[in-house]
Amino acid sequence: MTRSVATDIPSNNFKHYTTKSKTVLGKILGGIFGDRSVKYHEFMSKRRVNGSLYSYNYLVYYETGCFVSMSRKRGGFFKFINGWKDINADELFMQYKGIVMELNLDVPQGVLPSMPTNKKPEIASYSDMRIQGIDKVVHNTVDIFGYNVKEKDLYKFIGQGSKQIFSILKGCLGNPNELEKHYGANGQVPAVRILTPDKVYVIIADDTHNLPNVSKIRKVFNSGTKFTLSYSVGASAWSTVLSSIKSTYKMPVKKLIGGEVLLAGKLSGKWGGMYISKN
Known about the structure:
Layout: E1 15-18, H1 24-33, E2 34-35, E3 39-44, E4 47-57, E5 61-73, E6 84-86, E7 91-104, E8 122-131, E9 136-145, H2 162-172, H3 176-183, E10 191-195, E11 199-212, E12 216-225, H4 237-250, E13 254-267, E14 270-278
Parallel strand pairs: 1-14, 9-10
Antiparallel strand pairs: 2-4, 3-4, 4-5, 5-6, 5-12, 7-11, 7-13, 8-9, 10-11, 13-14
Helix pairs in contact: 2-3
């Protein structure tokens, strides 16, 4: 079977969603734990494509990633309440661009040496970076000292491909010639890691994954578990529990601050799908 590329998919009519939930309860939970809403496209009778671009922090477990799946409406006497069942698609397709994650280092004031606030970001090195769930090492990741880079400065990278990220970096680096030496005059940057005094930003450019005869594809960009036990002499058990929960929740993890995915599935020669972006 010849696997499809993005131009093969009739995505002009696909809806564009954001990662946020549309329900009041979903918005409240998203504000506390992060976005994990699922979008649907019922492109055939009782057949639909499901997709999500998510980033959540459930106190002791956190995860950032995306998935696409195919499902059908259940039949039978209770078909109206039986919900949906995963089924194999002819092909499932996933393409992500400009995934930007942020890790707050939570370093106390005065621990790190002062950084110049008026100096442009500079390339420090090139390295390999293993990203959970993508099943491979991203080679030629460019490592940058960001000095005064802020979250708002990363917005220009959201939803961009590797060529576009190369061009953006050339315009904002203090040593752009180093970029051209490594990648060439019209190169492509697969991933970027930017270190600032208090945060680390990771940018994953673009990639495509598609498989035939599967019910779901999931790619996890970051995940893990965390737990903190906070105890003070003489403290009550209830106070210890509350303090431990608070400390665990405050532990820094990578969170999604931007990105875009195209998620699609084919069944009986027809495509369904959606675009989802984190703004």
